[in-house]
Amino acid sequence: MALLEAQALKAYYSVRQGYIQAVDNIDLTLDRDVTLGLAGESGCGKSTLMNALMMNVKPPLHLMGGTIVLDGMVISKMDRTELKKDVWGVLVSLVPQSSLNALMPTMRIIDFIKDVIHHHTAASDSEIVSMARKRFEELNLPVDSLSLYPHELSGGMKQRAVIAVSTLLNPKLLIVDEPTSALDVSTQKQVLRMLVDLRKTGIIESMIFVTHDIAILRQIADRITIMYAGKIAESGPTEDVLFDPKHPYTVSLTSAVVTPEPEVRERGLASIPGEPPDLLDPPEGCRFYPRCTKSMSICRSVEPPLVKSEGTQLVACHIVSGDG
Hints:
This protein is α/β, with parallel strands linked by helices. 28% of the residues lie in helices and 23% in strands. Strands 6-7-8-3-9-10-12-11 form an 8-stranded mixed beta sheet, with helices on both faces. The radius of gyration is 20 Å and the shape is globular. The mean pLDDT is 91.
């Protein structure tokens, strides 16, 4: 049984003019013991999808439809009280995009941890301190930092501390949203190594790693899902998606990334013309067709289904499905 399965998931933002269709009719399955990389341009719906998958949904974001099953539990039917008690931090934890600001500036790290854990367990303060010390030791973090305030930590140390706190209750699934975007290259490597170790040591089962930097996914992801304008464009094993992309958007996206491979240097870099569509009023048919150099007449009016390609990937493109 898959760890996470979402079917026909729709999550829209309500605004004065109507609804922004940030996540629109998405199916996604995450197997156990897998790291899934989720990539795409800024504004494509990656962060919204992650919040929807763990049911962290409150206005102006609304769940408009779909089912989410996590570790056998239909969490899409739970209310916020149930989610806080039985799901968040226990089955799934989120390291948010703004995690460098996630710690309380007026609380020492250990006091912040006590406040978080008391919402989930009846453990005593001494038990929580012991739990935190053990986790920091497991992740090669200085235990002394538990007694410090956030401003006394470096940016990289704060990021790793937030990740450690997020895994204290050994959630089955860890979602990390752009965890390396504000860090230098050396610190990025430390954070990535820490995330890999979380799975190796069995602290977590699976992970979803969200990023706009597709090149970084080769270092950590088993599979990659590419999003465009609230939809899934392509999904498959990491090496296949990066080096044998099937969807025209994935081809363009991977061609716009700087990587050290000789074939990449040889072909040079390319840009994607045009702009993403307005999700208040997205185009009919394929949402990528206004920017696609291979678009056909069918692309303007018929939405392409997500189907198996000749390779290993699932692709939403009429060229791949043989239509038109």
